[in-house]
Amino acid sequence: MEKQELLGRVRAGFADLARRLEGLDDAALEQSCRAEGWTRREVLAHLAAWYEVSAERLELIGRGRADAIQWVAEDVDEWNARFFARDRELSPARVRERLGQTQRAVLAALEALPVQAFNDPRARAPIERWLPACTYEHEREHHADLGEEM
Prior knowledge:
This protein is mainly alpha-helical. The protein has one domain: Up-down Bundle (Four Helix Bundle (Hemerythrin (Met), subunit A)), CATH 1.20.120. 65% of the residues lie in helices and 0% in strands. It has helices spanning 3-21, 26-29, 40-62, 76-87, 92-112, 127-134, 136-141, 143-146. It is globular and about 45 Å long. 23% of the residues are buried.
């Protein structure tokens, strides 16, 4: 997948999530959802945590430090539990703020990457393989968790 196509898909996913959140107040974000008893706020914090991971990875790649990336592999549940514990007390306003910050960080880091970074044979995992799983594909996984009215 080319850089511009991936950038377009990530932007579209973020825009779709923003549309789904329009009109939801704090009380709606505190409602439980299907994701293991989490609230919508906690699901959004979970998404923001993975956007943060994505931005960090992209920044490392941009600095020529792909070798410093921490890959999740088998311990994804452990990572999710760590993020949940860290973020579970964030207010709805802080979760919305963090969601926006981490989305902007992903876009900025992705836009800054040279095209060569997408075809680097030294990369352990190509960007086009892991970034969708942390952004727009991940968002789609949680659509039902966030509620049908969304």
